[in-house]
C-alpha cells in the first residue's frame, strides 16, 4: 500500500538559518503532495502544496521541490523565525480520475527555531 | 461558516466501553477522513469516505467502525475501547482530495 517516509523526526536550527525536511513516497501514481504545519495544541493547516506536473513551488520563505523519478519531495524554509517552530507533516495522494481518496501522511518533523 | 467541527473535544472511557465521535463539515466536501495522532507516529489514517454512503479502510482500521449517512457528517465508533486507542483523533474533509481541512481534535483517554 501507499507509504510516506519523513526525515528527520526532529530538527533544531538557529533563527535565520534554513531548514530542510525530506519525504519519500512509495506509490508512483501519487500526484499531489501537500505540507501541513501543526502548532502545539492546534490542528494541522496547509502551508504549501505541489502537483506532479511541476518540480518546484515557492511562497515567500517556503518552497517545495519534487523529484518524481526518485519519488521524493522536500520542504525548504529560509530565514527561519521562532514562529516557524512547529510540527511539519508531508502527505501524498492521487488527484483526478485515479483518486482513491486516501491522503497518507509522513511521521512528522518537530522543528525548533532557537532565537 | 464553521468549517470542520468535532464532538466531543475530550473524553475518558473505561476499557470495554463504547463511544461515537462525530465530525461535521459545512463546506459541502465530498471526502472525509478520520486520523489518529500519536507521538512519533504522525497522522495515521483510520477510515475515510469519498462520498455519502461510502466508507473505506485506511492504515489502522482495526477496532473502529465508521458511517457516512449524510454528506456533512462522518461518525467514528469504538465498540469496545482499549487502552491502545488512547490518542488524539482528528477528522478532516476535502474537495476531491485537495486541501484537507481539519477539525480541532478529540483527546481520548481509555483507562
Summarize this structure briefly.
The complex is a heterodimer of chains A (115) and B (111). Chain A is mostly beta strands and 115 residues long.
Question: What would your notes on this structure say?
Answer:
Chain A is an all-beta fold and 115 residues long. In chain A, 0% of the residues lie in helices and 53% in strands. Chain A has strands spanning 4-7, 10-14, 19-25, 32-38, 45-51, 56-59, 62-67, 72-77, 86-92, 104-105, 109-114. In chain A, the strands form two sheets. In chain A, strands 2, 4, 5, 9, 10 and 11 form a six-stranded mixed sheet that branches. The relative contact order of chain A is 0.33. Chain B has 111 residues and is an all-beta fold. In chain B, the strands form two sheets. In chain B, strands 2, 4, 5, 6, 9, 10 and 11 form a seven-stranded mixed sheet that branches. In chain B, a hairpin with a 6-residue loop joins strand 5 and strand 6 (56-57). The termini of chain B are far apart. The mean pLDDT of chain B is 95. Chains A and B meet through strand 4, strand 5 and strand 10 of A and strand 4, strand 5 and strand 9 of B.
Beta fraction of the residues of chain A?
over 45%
Shape of chain B: globular
Contiguous low-pLDDT stretches of chain B (5 residues minimum) are none
Basic shape of chain A: globular
Bin the helical content of chain A.
under 10%
User: Would you list the SSEs of chain A in sequence order as H and E?
Assistant: EEEEEEEEEEE
Largest sheet of chain B: 7 strands, mixed
Question: How would you describe the oligomerization state of the chains in this entry?
Answer: heterodimer
- Largest sheet, strands/sense/barrel of chain A: 6 strands, mixed
> Any idea what the radius of gyration of chain B is?
13 Å
